[in-house]
Specification:
Blueprint: H1 6-27, H2 32-42, H3 54-74, H4 78-83, H5 85-109, H6 114-125, H7 129-138, H8 145-173, H9 183-217, H10 222-244, H11 248-260, H12 265-289, H13 295-298, H14 300-324, H15 329-339, H16 344-355, H17 361-383, H18 385-393, H19 396-399, E1 425-428, H20 432-443, E2 448-452, H21 455-463, E3 468-470, H22 478-481, E4 489-492, H23 497-510, E5 515-520, H24 523-531, E6 536-539, H25 540-555, H26 560-572
Parallel strand pairs: 1-2, 1-4, 2-3, 4-5, 5-6
């Protein structure tokens, strides 16, 4: 072929296959990341057909790593971490330690070195932020307490892996000069270089980088602004590696953190996102090229051990930790399911470990196989939350070991006499939605009980003299504590549709005549609730659309009476499909 170019062939075929397999993965309700990895396997040396240039793929992957880490730094939120620091910080550290120890144990069982075992265990200990965020968004749990804890937990894991990337090269060089330098000397020198780099970035970078970006933004050129963002990311990453001998990943991370200091950070993120996405795809494709599918048949027992660490070891550790901090069963299970997979940081660690001679190639193959299978199985892990939570909540004695010293999953302080309440309201969930309902009831002097899974929220409510029950509303005895059989109204403000269905079922079993208003996020769930005869099912997006429609109609001269007819009809009938004119 004239003008043959290995680079163009790699990019063209890699992107086309990534698109095809990524689309197929999305249609199968799996993360597209799985498809990108499969695309890499297809053009790798272990499968027939076209074989891409592994050297070029590795360099493109390095750019992908830089841009991925730049994105992590750009979106790094100290505020999010501080809100859940009491659980996310110790929880993530303990969970990483547990997973690393189990991974080290497996490695020693396979006669690997201790260093290889540590790298292997670390790679298995960190979950994929990309997969986690997608799963939480699909379940509308990103803004819930368990969602915030999971994101904060992943932030701590990411920071821990950044530190690991810094010190891995130091571990690799300890054997090069035996008798002249020790591990501690090597780590000390690395720490000093990193400290100097961090100090320069924190002192000078925080001022220079945002100022430079601002000057470029004032030119009004979109191209120059995008170029400035990419130049800062790649320039700092390359310069830090050359001058301070730190990894490209660490330099890119701090470049993102510095840019986050600017009020132009959102625009910087938007402009760099297309290129970041493109090279991130190429990173996953290049990782797939390194994977030998034969490892599944060659080392099935070892692969089962890897999956045990990812799906069981990490999850059980996280479950026990979250329960030990006094959170509800559903919160603990959500965190466990969130962590039952590995992703981009695991690939980066595995690639660096093999490159430095700290991890055998078969270790990387096992990590890649574990990632592919765990990401594929992750939706099933989330699907088990509801049945497992129901089973556990019906057996509170099983959880007494992990919970507070009294072993109670739900409790009321002695001074709150809930038993006296009659014709009151029960509000399940006291977040942004439930709290507004509570304020309204309180303003009219109406009595209500809150059922909430956050111990912190319950404690604050009790300080404010508001009756609150701590626990999962689907747990045995919790609805009874809220005197549901004597209540007049049930407000289900929980965003989880399956959770809401179970709450509705339990409430009606105790009080068939109770009025019910339910929050939902999907039209299918809304139609189901209407069929169940709930008094009011509220879908946030629908109510927002109706409010905007009403305003639009009035602005265009439609009468108030006609507006009421249209919006009421849309609320009752328009959910089923394309609306037709209901008539005057």
């Amino acid at each position: 072929m004239p003008h043959q170019s290995d680079l163009i062939a790699l990019i063209a075929i890699g992107f086309v296959l990534a698109l095809g397999f990524g689309f197929l993965a999305a249609r199968l309700r799996m993360p597209p990341l799985v498809g990108y990895l499969v695309a890499g396997i297809a053009i790798g040396p272990f499968t027939p057909g076209f074989v891409a240039d592994a050297g070029l793929a590795g360099q493109l992957a390095e750019i992908g790593v830089i841009l991925l880490m730049f994105g992590v730094g750009l979106h790094f939120s100290i505020g999010t971490l501080l809100k859940v620091r009491n659980i996310a910080l110790p929880g993530a550290i303990v969970q990483i330690a547990v997973a690393t120890i189990i991974g080290l144990g497996l490695a020693r069982l396979w006669n690997w070195s201790t260093t290889s075992g540590i790298v292997f265990g670390l790679a298995l200990s960190v979950a994929s932020t990309v997969v986690l965020l997608r799963a939480l968004e699909q379940r509308n749990e990103l803004d819930t307490e368990q969602g915030r804890i999971a994101v904060g937990w992943l932030v701590v894991e990411d920071l821990a892996m950044v530190v690991a990337l810094v010190f891995l090269p130091a571990l690799a060089h300890t054997g090069d000069s035996a008798g002249q330098s020790s591990l501690f000397v090597s780590l000390g020198v690395t720490s000093l270089k990193v400290a100097i780099f961090v100090a320069l970035m924190m002192v000078g970078g925080r001022r220079i980088v945002p100022w430079l970006l601002l000057q470029v933004a004032r030119t009004g050129s979109r191209e120059l602004f995008t170029l400035a963002v990419l130049g800062i990311a790649l320039g700092i990453a390359y310069g830090s590696a050359m001058l301070f001998d730190v990894s490209f990943a660490l330099g890119a991370f701090f470049a993102g953190v510095m840019l986050a200091e600017s009020d132009l950070s959102h625009q910087a993120a938007e402009n760099s996102l297309p290129l970041q996405d493109a090279f991130a795809v190429m990173f996953f494709v290049s990782v797939g090229m390194l994977f030998d599918p034969a490892v599944i048949l060659r080392q099935p027992l070892e692969l089962l051990g890897v999956l045990f660490v990812i799906l069981v070891g990490k999850s059980l550790a996280a479950f026990a930790i979250v329960l030990a901090f006094g959170y509800a069963v559903r919160t603990a299970l959500t965190i466990s399911a969130s962590l039952a997979q590995i992703g981009e940081f695991s690939f980066i660690l595995a690639g660096l470990g093999v490159g430095l001679g700290l991890l055998p190639p078969e270790g990387r193959d096992l990590i890649l196989a574990g990632a592919l299978l765990s990401i594929t199985l992750n939706p099933f892990a989330f699907a088990t939350i509801a049945p497992i939570a129901r089973w556990l909540n019906e057996r509170p004695k099983l959880l007494a070991f992990f919970t507070r010293k009294d072993g109670k999953l739900s409790s009321l302080p002695p001074d709150q006499q809930v038993s006296r309440l009659r014709n009151h309201a029960v509000i399940v969930g006291y977040g942004r939605v439930g709290s507004v309902v509570g304020y309204g009831l309180q303003a009219q002097g109406l009595e209500y009980v809150v059922i909430e899974m956050s111990r912190r929220v319950v404690d604050q409510l009790r300080e404010d003299k508001i009756t609150a029950v701590y626990g999962d509303a689907t747990a045995h005895g919790v609805m009874e504590l809220a005197q549901i059989e004597h209540a007049r109204l049930l407000v289900i403000a929980s965003p989880d549709g399956f959770h809401a269905r179970r709450i509705l079922e339990l409430a009606r079993a105790k009080n068939p005549k109770i009025a019910v208003v339910v929050r939902t996020h999907s039209s299918s769930e809304l139609k189901y609730l209407i069929r169940q005869g709930v008094d009011r099912a509220v879908m946030g997006e629908l109510e927002l659309a109706l409010e905007m429609t009403d305003y639009a109609l009035r602005s265009l001269g439609v009468s108030e009476e006609r507006c009421k007819i249209l919006t009421q009809w849309l609320r009752n009938e328009g959910v089923a499909g394309s609306p037709k004119d209901p008539g005057a």
